[in-house]
Design goal:
Layout (H helix, E strand, L loop, with lengths): L1 H27 L4 H25 L10 H6 L4 H11 L4 H8 L3 H14 L5 H10 L4
Amino acid sequence: MRKIILVFGLLILALLLLFQFSKYAVISGDLNSEIAIALIAIVFFFIGVYLNKKSLQKKTNASDDINHKKIEDLDISKREYEVLLGISEGLSNREIGEKLFVSESTIKTHVSNLLSKLNAKRRTQALQIAKDLQII
């Protein structure tokens, strides 16, 4: 967390210095305003590219962390697992049904089966158990 704060602090400082330099250059007549704006735009472009690359590097392959054997041991079907993933995304039964092209009542049945297989009383509790078992 400190590293992120330090990076953003340095970026803000660099932009502040760039703005002060461009202000001085425009006032002294050495640089017109179009070039100053272009330089600022180029700096923002490279900052955006840098931050985008950093955010893409943090994504990991989640399928390596999933305990597929535990899914089989709990006898969770493929469709029930898809419903569990929909629940983990925060989708409602209707939204999960639309995503999987099934009716809302079918989703309710799958959710009920998941709750019984995970020994949970609520969807949130099922998600917590699934995370603890490393199946999502």
